[in-house]
Amino acid sequence: MTSILDKFSGNRIEVNEPAPRHLDPSDTGEATPASYSMEVKEVHKTFGSFKVLQGLNLNFQDNAITTVLGPSGTGKSVLIKHLVGLLEPDAGEVAIFGQDLWSMTEQERYDVRKKMGVLFQDGALFGSMNLFDNTAFPLRKHTDKHEDEIQDIVTRRLTEVGLERSWHKYPNEVSGGMRKRAGFARAMVMEPRIVFFDEPDSGLDPVRTSLLNDVILEMHAEHGGTYLLVTHDIRTARKVSDYVGLIWKGKTVHYGPAEEAFEHDDPFVRQFLSGESAGPLGMD
Ligand SMILES: Nc1ncnc2c1ncn2[C@@H]1O[C@H](COP(=O)(O)OP(=O)(O)OP(=O)(O)O)[C@@H](O)[C@H]1O
């Protein structure tokens, strides 16, 4: 255990030693399949006549933060829905910890999902519950933990996201950034091995985005696991990513360590990551 200064409250809090950001310091990004917590193999998905995923391949390292970037409408949210098992591929395979999601029973898929946490765009909080009860909700619904233990877990998670003094407030009484942090605390109470963030920065100003990114990095350093962020915000990607995947028109156009992605000389990668209007990426 070590003690860190909580930037929101000014208090010192005890945390576990940081988990390694990479599996291995000599890791070059060319991981063995065993180190992937999630694998997307040649996945196709069509809605009506619209081919959204067209043979998508993308793997996710455990104990790392991967950001998936790509133009609007390119299939990033559809990818997340496949990874959480809400959508079944028309062809191809989605494997979580080496197990094909669609070769398992409904119950097994449900059990896999219990290892996952999702931070939705708006935090997806219940308006009728205060932040404490929102955060406690998964524990009360899915576990038989005693209220004392629930109180302890929820207080720790709310402290980690800087909301320990706002536990009694309702979602409509707090800022968008606080709602996202409460949604994050709730996503973490079941100790997920995999956490998805669907555009965590949407609707936040740069300062609140930066604060949320700090919380994401601190949570990951403390708890480890696989974090997958979908975002359009290049600054967020630069700040939090260990790995970056770029998808376009339902296919992966780049995947690799973040530092490599931001120095890449492929015209598409450069254009997207620099936000330039000139380049291969058009409006269609
Ligand atoms: N259930 C569905 N039925 C029909 N079309 C869908 C469905 N889900 C997604 N689509 C379509 O698939 C395409 C990709 O959607 P998706 O939400 O994954 O894009 P995205 O990359 O996340 O975009 P954005 O960055 O704007 O959020 C869109 O054209 C969307 O309208």
UniProtKB/TrEMBL annotation:
Asked if Cell wall biogenesis/degradation is a keyword of the record, the answer is: no
Domain ABC transporter: where?
Answer: 38-274
- Among its keywords, does the record have Transport? yes
Q: Which UniProt keywords apply?
A: ATP-binding, Nucleotide-binding, Transport
Record InterPro entries: AAA+_ATPase (IPR003593), ABC_transporter-like_ATP-bd (IPR003439), ABC_transporter-like_CS (IPR017871), P-loop_NTPase (IPR027417)
Q: Matching PANTHER family, A to Z?
A: INTERMEMBRANE PHOSPHOLIPID TRANSPORT SYSTEM ATP-BINDING PROTEIN MLAF, PROTEIN TRIGALACTOSYLDIACYLGLYCEROL 3, CHLOROPLASTIC
State the protein's name: ABC transporter domain-containing protein
- Name the source organism: Nocardioides dubius
